[in-house]
Amino acid sequence: MPNTPDPATAPTKAVWPAVAVPGQPGAPHSIPEAAGAEPKASPSRPASAAIGPRTQGDQVLADLAAQIERYVVLPSPEAVTAVTLWVAATHLQTVWQHAPRLAVVGPAKRCGKSRLLDVITETVHDPLITVNASAAAIFRSIGEADPPTLLVDEVDTIFGSAKVAEKNEELRGLLNAGFQKSRYTLRVAGPNHEVVRFHTFAMAALAGIGDLPDTIMDRSVVMRMRRRRNGEKVSEFRAFRDTPALHAVRDQLAAWLRPRGKEAIGLMPVPMPVEDRAADTWEPLVIVADLAGGDWPERARTACRAMTAHEAALDQDNSLHTRILVDIRRVFAACDNAAALPTRTLLAMLNRDEEAPWAGLGTQGVCPRRLQILLKPYDINSSTRRFPDGTQAKGFTRAQFMDAWDRYCPPEAPPEPSGA
Length: 420
Hints:
By secondary structure, the chain is an alpha/beta fold.
C-alpha cells in the first residue's frame, strides 16, 4: 500500500481569512487592502524598517498604523506615528499624569476628520463618543478607576463662533481641567444639597472644521487634515465588515500594554525633544514608543519635533503679539542691529512689508498707539531718546526687546552662505 501522509504532520496550505485580522493564521504583519492582496509597504514606515525580529509592541503598533492608513490619508508620516501612539496610549490612561487631547481639524468638509474618528473609536480604550453633549453629562460619565476615552465629532458646532463658544465655556473648562490628573469639578447634588466631586481626567479626541480654542489646542496633538488629491486612494470603511479587524488590534493593544502599567510609570523618556506643556502632551506617546522598541522611539521623537514646530510656526503667524516681536527683530537686523530706532522708522519698515499683517491694521497701517498696545504684555514702552544724528524722538532700544525675544520668539535662523 502506498504511504498515506499523517494528517497531523502533513503540510497545510495557509488560508486567508475573509477579513485579515492580525494574529490569525495567514495574516501578514501589515493588513492588506483586501483579503488575499499582497501586503504593501506603508508610506509611514520604510520597508527596510521591518527587517529583523519584532517585539510584541512593535508588531501591534505596525498593525494599527496599517489599519489607520487603510482608511485615511494623513498629512504626513509623522502624523501617522502620532495618531498610532495616541490610540495606544489610551490603553494606559490611569498611568499618565496628563491626558493629551487629539485635535483632528481641517479647513473644510470632506477632509477625512470623521473617518479618522471612526477608526479611532474602534481601537481606543472604552470609547465614549458624542456629538453635542453637555459638560454635566460628560463629567458624570468619567470615573476615576478606569476613565473612558472621550470622542467628540463636529466640535465646530460647540466652539465654531464666539457667540456659540461663549455658551459652552463650561465644556471648554472641563476639557482643560481633564488634561491633568486630580483636577475635579464640584457640584451640589442630592436631596441634602451635598457638594459632590466629579472626576474630569480622560483622554479626548475632538474633530471639527477650524481650530479649537487656544487653550485646548495647546494641550493637543494636532492633526491638520486635508482633502485627498486625485490618485490618493483609501478603502471605504464599513462598520459591519471592518470593525472585527480593528477590534482585534484594539484587543492586542490592551493585551500588550495593560500588564506594563508599572513599567510605564517608572519610565522617563530621555531625551525629550520638547519642554513644558508640549512635553506634558507628548510624554505618554513617547513612553509607549519606548515600550515598543524597534524604530518607534526615534519615530516618536521625530514626530514630536516636527509637529510641535509646525504648530509653533502657525501660532507665531496667528498671534499678532508674538508676530510683532519677530518682525521688530527683523527690522533691527535690517538696520545693522542698531542700539536704538525711532518709532517712526520702526513703523515705516513694519508697514512696508507686504506679506506682514501690519499694513492692513488700519488706513495707514499699524500706528504708534496700536504698537504700544501690542507691546504692553511684554512691558516694553517707547520713550524720548537722542539719536546719533542729533535729533530727539520717541523710540525703542534693542536692549528693551532682548528678554522678550529670548522668551517668546523662535531662535533666529542662521545666515545663509554667500553662495546660496
